[in-house]
Design goal:
Structural class: alpha/beta
Order of helices and strands: EEEHHEEEHEHEHHHEEHHEE
Strand order of the largest sheet: 3-12-11-4-10
Strand content: 15-25%
Distance between the termini: 39 Å
Oligomer: single chain
Largest sheet: 5 strands, mixed
Radius of gyration: 26 Å
């Protein structure tokens, strides 16, 4: 029931409507609870384990149906190892110069993803060592020609190159590698200065080096591990991620039309929102006090 309070002020009629709101609207959403990093990791892992058990139960429940259809099991049920993903909303406007973050970071326990790498170099010794180290293909212009002919499919995840192959890649493979994000770049460490360092860079890539980049709204999405890692390994990866993202903070940042000076940027927040989720789960909102490396509650429980 609406209750109206009528008040007259300088000849104008002001009508105030008041009612107890018992619904959720887009303008007045119910606030989402915030958790510390450790609590969020444990909550996400509990949800992952719950979904694993449900998949196994469904597999066992449908066993008679598979027998009726003549489907034979080739072994035990292979459950899904979900990826743990992090979303960071930063106070950045990529349209402004110097605020579009892009880089790569090496996680202490890797990302859990198998990475396929191709190495472009004219150094035959370095190419041979790259193949022995685990590269999918390695070589010079012969690898470029095989990709153009379709002999080597574009099913690899990373492309490493030395400076002597940069011009060839730009002329022949830029339109194929660029849209897929495979073009070697110094910002993400895939353009190696010399053939002597290409093996160490290749090993970092194969170990699960993660690349990140802000989208047009200033949000970074990246995988920080697998559900099978456990809480300790995920916390180590998250701690490294937060530190790396904070160290990459530009001198001046801030969203909005007005240009902010370096002095005003110091008073602005760098981390606006942070969420943790799994591949098939709901997101969990993180308490920014446990995300910001400058906070006294960084990676710890918040004491009210």
């Amino acid at each position: 029931m609406w209750s109206r309070i009528v008040a007259r002020n300088r000849g104008s009629l002001l009508v105030f409507a008041a009612r107890g709101r018992s619904f959720q609207s887009r303008a007045h959403p119910i606030p989402k609870p915030e958790y510390s990093v450790a609590q969020a990791v444990q909550l996400v892992l509990d949800q992952v384990e719950e979904r694993k058990q449900k998949r196994v139960q469904k597999w066992e429940r449908n066993a008679p149906k598979r027998v009726e259809k003549g489907i034979e099991d080739d072994g035990p049920y292979r459950n899904q190892d979900e990826t743990i993903e992090l979303a960071l909303n930063l106070n950045l406007d990529p349209r402004k110069p110097g605020q579009a973050l892009r880089g790569a970071l090496s996680l202490p326990h890797g990302s859990g993803k198998t990475v396929k790498c191709v190495v472009f170099t004219r150094d035959e010794a370095a190419a041979k060592e790259a193949l022995e180290a685990g590269a999918l293909h390695a070589g010079g212009e012969e690898i470029v020609n095989q990709i153009l002919e379709g002999t080597i499919p574009l099913d690899f995840d990373r492309a490493l190159a030395t400076p002597d192959m940069q011009a060839v890649l730009g002329q022949k493979l830029a339109r194929m590698l660029g849209p897929r994000g495979l073009m070697p770049n110094t910002k993400v460490g895939t353009l190696v200065p010399s053939p002597d360092k290409i093996i160490s860079v290749l090993k970092d890539q194969l170990a699960g080096q993660v690349q990140y980049r802000t989208d047009k709204t200033g949000i970074i999405h990246l995988g920080v591990g697998k559900g099978s890692f456990g809480s300790e390994k995920l916390l180590d990866n998250l701690k490294t991620t937060f530190n790396e993202i904070y160290e990459a903070k530009p001198e001046s940042f801030g969203k909005g039309k007005k240009k902010s000076s370096s002095s005003s940027s110091k008073n602005q927040k760098y981390f606006l929102k942070a969420f943790l989720t799994a591949s098939q789960g709901k997101s969990v909102k993180l308490d920014l006090r446990t995300v910001d490396p400058t906070s006294t509650f960084f990676m710890s429980e918040v004491i009210e």
